[in-house]
C-alpha cells in the first residue's frame, strides 16, 4: 500500500474540503466471494481510510451533515455487491462524524437539466447509510441500480473523485437501547439498510439486551445483500436471529422458499405484545402484502396485510 500526499482545499463557500491519496481501500479486491454475491464489508479496515498531516481542532465536535444545507461529498471508491447493487463510499473530514442518529436516513440530489426559467432541476432520493454512524471520515451507501432509476443511474455513472450533494439527517425511528424486549424485522432487497443500522446499534452496545429477529426476503440467493456480514453478526451474537427466504431458490438452497408467509412470521418473529416492535422495509409489493404502504403524506398510515391478520396493532409496527 503506497502512502501519498494529503491536501485541504477550500470550496467556493469557504468550507474546508479534505482529500487524500494516502490510503486506497481495495474495494474491488474485497468485494467478491462466491461469484460476487457476498461482501466482506465486515472486515473493512476503517482505521486506514484516510490520513491527514493536519486537521482542524474543532473537527471532533463537528458533524459532516447539515439538515438545512446541501453539502458536497466526494466519492472515494465503489464496489459491486451483486449483479444490480453497488456500494459507494464517500469521504469527508477524517476527524468528524457524519452526524447521523439511529435510525435516520439522508437525502441525495442530482441535476437533471433545467426548468422553463433556466433554473436547475434535481432528482432527490433518500438513502440509509450502512456504515457505523460513529465512523469518522466516511459513510457507505448500498444502492440498487434500476434501469430507469434517475438517481441510481446517476450513482452508477460516478467515478472516484466525483461529488454528490447530500442533506440531512432525516430521522425515521428514534431508537433507544432496550426500548423493546424484542424487535422483529422484515426486509426485502435494499430494505435491509435501515435494519442493519438498528441491528448494529443494538449489538455494539453491551448494555442493550434487545432480542432481534430478522426475516430477509429476496428474489434469489444471488440477490441477498450483505449475507456474509449478517451471518457473522448472527453467529457472534446470540440475540440476533436471521432467516432468509427467496422466490427462486437454487438447487442447494437451505433457507426458506417463496414470498414471506404467515407461517414464516408466526415462527420467525416475536408475537404481538406491548414489548414487541416490528420494523418493515421493502419494495411496494412487499409492503402491501405485509403491512400496507405509508399514507400519501408519508405518515405511517393504516396497518393492513399479513401483520394485521396475525394480530399486530399499528403501535407495534413501524414502516420505513
TrEMBL record:
It is found in: Mitochondrion. It is an enzyme of class 1 (oxidoreductase). Its EC number is 1.6.2.2. Keywords: FAD, Flavoprotein, Membrane, Mitochondrion, NAD, Oxidoreductase, Transmembrane, Transmembrane helix. Its cofactor is FAD. Residues 68-176 form the FAD-binding FR-type domain. It comes from Carya illinoinensis (Pecan). PANTHER family: NADH-CYTOCHROME B5 REDUCTASE, NADH-CYTOCHROME B5 REDUCTASE 2. This is cytochrome-b5 reductase.
